[in-house]
Structures
1.
Amino acid sequence: MAQSPPSASPPSPPSSLQSPTTPRSPRSPPSPPSLHHVRSPSVASNSSTPTLIISPFDSPLRSQSSSIIDEKRHHQDQMTSSIRSSSRFMEYFNEEVAGAHSSLYLLVSFFTSGLIDSVAFNAWSCFVGMQTGNTIFAALGFSGQPLTVHPNAYLKSITSIFAFCAGTLFFSAMHRIPCWFDPNPTPSRRRFILIVSFTIQTTFIVAAALLIQLGFVSSRPSVSGAFSSGNHLSDLPNPEEEDNYKDLIAIALLAFQSAGPVFFSRVLGIIELPTIVLSTLYCDFVADLYHLPTSLRNKKSWYSFFFNDERRQFRRLGSILMLFLGGLVGGFMFRSLVGMVGALWMASGLKGMMVVGWVLWKAEKKPQEEGGV
């Protein structure tokens, strides 16, 4: 059987009719991310994929150095802020406090003086503030009088006098620290000095109260002929045979701190209010009563009468009443359950409140502020 010839394959269309095929270029690796994407000028505007050029400023080294600079600036800002805060802090505590109405501190000091002296005399037969009475007690002791007291009782008065003088030297030197090298140093009313002064007074009262609280010193009513009267924890079996010389420690502490308010009255320039004695105060108050009718006739208003014309008189009267009130409160507290130690804790609390008061007290106006500059 004859085989059919192989069919010829249809001719391929001409090359011009073939669909053009564009060879695909291999995919380029993705470019690293950059913050600044810049279109290459060599690429045509109708190109769908712009070419990205990495800026040399976007390197990791540049970013790291920028963060270091930012951290340094932040640290410098913090240091500057801290220095400014410290400067304001020092300026606040170095400024002079205003003298207006500061006599209120003297009135409170009169009360605490009466409170402490009343319980001290009731337990130890001596004063820790009024050194005039102690001087008489010491003189009587050297002469062997009175016969009803212990032969060495005058040591309490001597201790109180010397401790008071030491406290005066201390507080006087402390108030003169800012102008210590001046030819004529004058006492200062700087805030930090007053805070330290009244803090020391508070600390000494607290120390004396702790000695009494722990039973180291006498705290019961004084016994005739005995040096010590016994503490609140236990009675002495034979008071006339027991000489507890630790009482002198508490006396010295309280006498030392009592010099602080006295010198503070000198700092304020109110010498007429010494906070511990009333003899000159009684004299000045009674002697100036002759001016009272004239002040009443010439008064412009009652406010002017009380706070301008007769301000000194009412301040004297208030000081007398506050010392008396302090002694009265001390007497009632001594015979109550709280006893002598309760009165001392009350006095220390009042002193502590005065410390807080000096922290918040307004400053003295500077000359430019007063002149409106």
2.
Amino acid sequence: MFTGFCGTMTELTCNDDDGACLLSTLNSTVNFCANPGVEYYLSVGYWTDGTITGNFRISIIENTSCSVLPIELVYFDAKQEDEIVNLNWVTASEINNDFFTIEKSKDGINYEFLENVSGAGDSNVPVHYFTVDENPFEDINYYRLTQTDFNGSKETFSPIVVRITQNENELPIYFDLYGNRVNPNNCATGIYIKQIGKSIEKVLIYSN
């Protein structure tokens, strides 16, 4: 049993009779789970030094025990870039996929909503997705991906972790009480603000 396109077929399964052709009647069964929208090809071949006669019949029987995954996730990745986190994921195939939900967490337990991203519906080719967390938490960030079908069924994947590294370059800013910049090393009355990243770490007041 094969799937794919002419010249690039992929074998799904095979059943070799292994000498059963010595019997007057040959019954062979091939079991596999079929995905909606995918074409499948059955190849039947034989080798013999004699002659084969008789009837040939193929029967297709539905097996409801098959569990078809709504999407096949290739990877889910998150990387820090300056003060944001870029999130990327790729699917190899999708079935009835409505949308993805990205959530984030400080502790890996309590998650909050970040964004919904529309899915491809049905697809048999790789699909790339991308979104951005513009306000990540300080230090550790957990990101979780959930896929939702059009019928409301959901599948949640294992979370990934990103540790945010801060820019340690200090950016001192000096002001006097009248709004002019001053040097705290002189005797002028002023305010010294030491800033690292987005937040003000401490405020020192000088006076003579």
